[in-house]
Model the fold of this input.
Amino acid sequence: MASLLEKVQILISANLHAMVDSALKANSLAVFDQYIREVEDNLENLEDAVATVGGELKTLRRKKKDLDERAAELDRNIDIFLREGKEELALAAQSKLNSVDLLVRNYDEMLERQELEFQSLKDSRLKLEAKLTTVKQEREELQALLDLARSKEITAKAIKSLDDLMAEDDADIARVAESIRARLDKASARSEMLAGSLESQMDEVLEKSTLEAQLAERKARLGLGD
Done:
């Protein structure tokens, strides 16, 4: 279970800024897609672990309850035996009670450890789900940004071709080329404006993600729940 939680912590602490930079440099969303696949696989494993540990916790609680009832019954019997003057029976019952009390203490320790592990698994699942949602949103924003970049590359090539046409000694061709180029310049300006908006939105989301992570860490340090 420890190795699973270690993997999950690594995924939760993944640097989104670094992922965005890597994707932009490679002009590819492969780094995001790989991260999403790993998160989804580990989320599935976490779901199974939460169910397993939760089931074990229920079993421990049930056994602990049975032991508590058994201890209470032995305690009552000892009093009865002593009142009736049955010392031997009281001694035997006391010995059994001591053994049951020892088991109860052991179960208390096991329950405490299991409760902590169960809560840790649930917290990790919630954090990983939140990170996955953020990364998927970032992927969509980045996809739009990369699409705009490719569109600008195509526009640049088209303008280069138009420049070549305009260099020819043909007034009609030059006029048509100039008209097309004007339309391409307008489309390029619109793309740049949209790209700037997307970049701004992405920076805001990343900054919000950083702030939320800092607050979550502070809450954990203060012992505050989500």
Remarks:
- The helical segments are 2-12, 16-26, 30-83, 87-166, 171-222.
- Residues 2-222 form one domain.
- The mean pLDDT is 78.
- The chain is about 90% helix and 0% strand.
